[in-house]
User: What shape does this take?
Amino acid sequence: MSNDITLFTVLGWEQRFLLGTNHILENYKIHNVYLICFTDYLHMNNMNENFIAIEELMKEKSIELKIIKLEYEDSISNWKKLDVFFKDIDFDQVLINITTFPRETIWTFLFFLRTNGACISYIYYKPDSYDKSEGGLTKNHKSPRLLFKHSGVFDIDKKLVIFIITGFDHNRTNVLIEHYEPSKVVYLSQKGEQFENMKRNCGLCPKTGFENILIDNVAIDSYNIDESCKILKELIENHRDYNIIITSQGPKTSAISTYLAYLNNNNIALAYVPAREFSGEYSFGIGNRYIVGNIKI
Amino acid sequence: MSWNTTKYEKAMKDYLIAKLGESEGEILYTDYESLRNELIKDNFFREIKINEPFLSDHSDRHIMDVQNRAYKLIGDFEGQGLSAIDVYCLALMILFHDVGNIFGRNGHDSIPRIAEVYNQYRTMPQNYGEERRVITSGASAHSGKSRAGCKDTLKYITKDSIKEEEVNLPELSAILRFADELAEGQHRTCSFLIDKGLYDENSMIYHKYASIAEIRVDRALGRIVITYTINVSENFNENEEEQKEIIDLIHFSFYRAIKLDQERRYTKYYSSILLPFKYVTVLYKFEKNYTPLDFDIKPIVFEDKYPVPGVDFVKDPEQAKNEIEKNHPDFILEDIINLLRIAKIEVI
Amino acid sequence: MKNPFVFDRPNTIEVDEFIKYYIKDNTYTRFLESTRNIVLIGVRGSGKTSTLRYYSLPVSFHNPSIQDKFKLVGVHIPCKQPLLGKREYLLYDDQNKQNVVVEHFLCINILTEICNTFLELHGEISISVEIRDDILANLGYIFDTEFKNVSSLFDSIKLFINKEANSSQRKLNNENFESFIDYALTFNNTIIPLLEQIKKIPELRNSHFSLFFDDIQDLGDIHQRIINSWIAFRDNKLFSFKIATAATKPIYITSNGGLILEGHDFVRIDLTKGLFNKNSEFSQFAKDVIQKRLDIAGIDTTVDEFLPLSETLRDDLEKGKQKAKELAEQKYPNSTGTQISDYVSKYARAISFRERNSKANIPTYSGFETLVDISTGVIRNLLNPLYFMYEKELSLNSPCDKILKINPNTQKDVIKTKSDDFWEKIRNIDSELDNCSKDLAKQINNFYDQLIDYLKRRLKDEKISEPRALNFIISEIEPEMEEKINEIIDASLKSTLLYERTINHKATGKKLPLYVPNRMMLPTHGLDPHGQYSHFSIKGKDFLATAIYNKSLPFFAEEDSNISQLKLDL
Assistant: This one.
């Protein structure tokens, strides 16, 4: 890669944030860093310490650090801010550390960077483990929302299907179904035993009231983005008689594959279910594997 | 009840400062406030009751109510093109519009009576000649008769000025008149005195009307909303006297609703600010022993009447002639023809 | 054997079956047959969608009880549409532009449903070629388009709408979405002309079109305000609106800041209204619903026989009655009028619940009346437990056996399970509700735990005059308390832990909210769901102390004396 790599990363409270940043700085020639700070989550554990640490790290490495302040709760203001931000600056080589990015923000950045003409790479760090406490990783979910400019093209004659790449938060899945009342749901559940996946990500917890919904189950490996894209493409093709909404609630890399699926067919809509509460721990450590790739548009 | 700063006053203060600057705006507002405070401190409005004990409420509360109604009618001072002096004058006009009642109901709206009270409370009244003229003529037009002796009091109100600042007096007078008409409701009467029959016979119906009326200004939807809530006793069916009272009350409410609509159409003729108020909707709600009854009665709607070409139009010239002669006695065709017959031209 | 108490979503049931099962609730359905604007307020499961569907043309056309099929043309417009979930309009700073976009998509939705309504009749209306061509020509002029000549009038119009929907969605998603504004659909320039044109069809010459918006609370604020602006139209000859909402506080503001007013602009129908007065019609309605389902299933029995009261409960109630009578005779040795019977009526049930064996399990909740009480007036809350009771009874019997009654123990078990589920919902209220924080969830749990404890103490107290009162008002609310109290109450109303009614204070004429706990929460704790038509007062400060600090609700046996001042607003 050339010298002029710009890194986009989100200030996080997990251990993966600093550990991942260190790894990136050791292995990539980062010219400058844009640190996205969600001001309404600065109260989470370790945020202040992590912020100071990253400031010091950038000073030490003589890398320019710029802050982009966003509000997780305010998707409208975020979009407008980023619209202005990306109009003012040109980007060439960009690396997005999606590890601590909310999925909606990943999609938003991909949109703006694509419009900006940047060459986009992404990197994702798996944790050693996730929080196993009963409260779940996220709680207190808000109503789902369609991503701006990615809300699809709905045909008034077609029924609705939702593709959900499921995660460990069953309620987050149910909120989506209750909100849209689709005719069909396709659960795409992660393969493998990592993080007690088979126990926690059974995907299917249909509540009373979902009896009239057709359900399909598909196994997917979201860490393999090419394969995931292929599966999604096929599913979209098989459901051409439906209006399609896709959401990513599984591994963070599924945000990439869902976005690529959208680029392939912009009649589909991308939906996000915001959470108001996140587990204070969320995850521990950093795994020995990371996933890196380029977005070819 | 002591005076609470009204929404009109709050908005007025901000507006005066915005338009005239902090210093001048504050001075003008203080000018208004001091006059208001003098009247309040002296219990002026409350004392109106002494002379006219059976009148509906004309205390501070009524004045505040009229101001708030005026504010709702206008909506936005700036947007409606009112100047700072307009807003100031209207506030004073509202303050003084009913002061004549201290002398008795008859002629309460006369200029001399209003002026007498104004002079009593305005410090150094000799310095406020223009203001006095504007306020008294504007306030006087809210009811009664014009100087020409007719009820079209707004017709003779013309634009005026104070210290070379134009005052849109016709507009303000229309707003005051209509706001006063709308300032009706339970707060103007006492249910105890009604229940005990302690108001005199002539004014009882007005008090009963006040107790049932709720009037709302809805500028956004261009309407005035009247809701009448009428309660009857549990043995209404056996009580003929009560039935008669309720019938009289409903009749009176019809009359007052029509009058209000008439005022709406009349005042908006003189006021561009009141133009958006296109209709009045009147709803009757009934209760038995204070329990709401579920009648499905549609509201009565009074709308603007406008001519539709070809509809209810005169059918022929003969009908047109009759129509004009009926409304214009100076233009009886026969008389015109006679005049023409006897007119001679002098040839020089 | 099909379960007669299946509760499908009304939109998914076939028309004939729907007509067979539907029971009209005559307390309010006459309003839906009128040309007035209606706002129908009811919690989820109270029958709003069923009612709107009943009056929609595809159903009313096949309804043998309706003579003039086209007098009222009901168009059912569900609001859960992804098209209406698009949010790009929020990126405009200008409110007017936002309104333009939202109104455009609302109109697309309405036009679609108008077409679907007539298409569902599968050619029952014959439209001559001349009339079709005339309508399409006029609409083509008005909409500035050329309609494709396909099989039917409404197919042609639908093609146009689909094209328009596609095109406008693409504009909205692209770089320069300002271009969208150039020609946007509005109610005035599309819906009204369309309705006027289709009145040329002979069958529709004298029709009135009722536009039914279902679950309007699922729409954004701007959507609702625009619809309110339409409701404010003065002329209801051609069309009217029937809006169904589950919102506890519906939005009445219009898009230009006005307010639509009950009585003047619309008739408000509160579906929970019938529950809590003494002459509740819900009980009769519930009986009719159950009886109909039994008849359709060929189960030849009455509702009371199908849902018998358990002998144990009957005995307990009888014992309570006897004891109450003895106490009354002691209290009123020279009784006059109805003194004894009034006393028995007031205290009998309380005594029977109070004097149950403390080691015994919860009462054998059973009987039709118990089910009605527990449903708290929501039809789904009645049919849902019945469904599970029937399933359980099926599982206990041989497959060939016809189920002619639900054993009281089965009834009790299912009611207990449902009640436990209800408490599970309270425990996880922050997952159930949108925007419910952990703190708020804790406060809600505190309050209901303490409320149950209070109701138990009330039931046990021998001196109190209304021992089975379940409903409450909140009094002495200081301004600084309001926000918090409202937050807890609103969350409770949204999640149907509570329902709200209005009562009149006779002396002041003031209207006060009366809160009715969802009676499903009572069986888990062995309380009597039947309740009494009275209420108690909780002071604002006590309410907050309970919610925030988990303090007990103060209990004063003498407090009931003020209740006579309050009258339920029916």
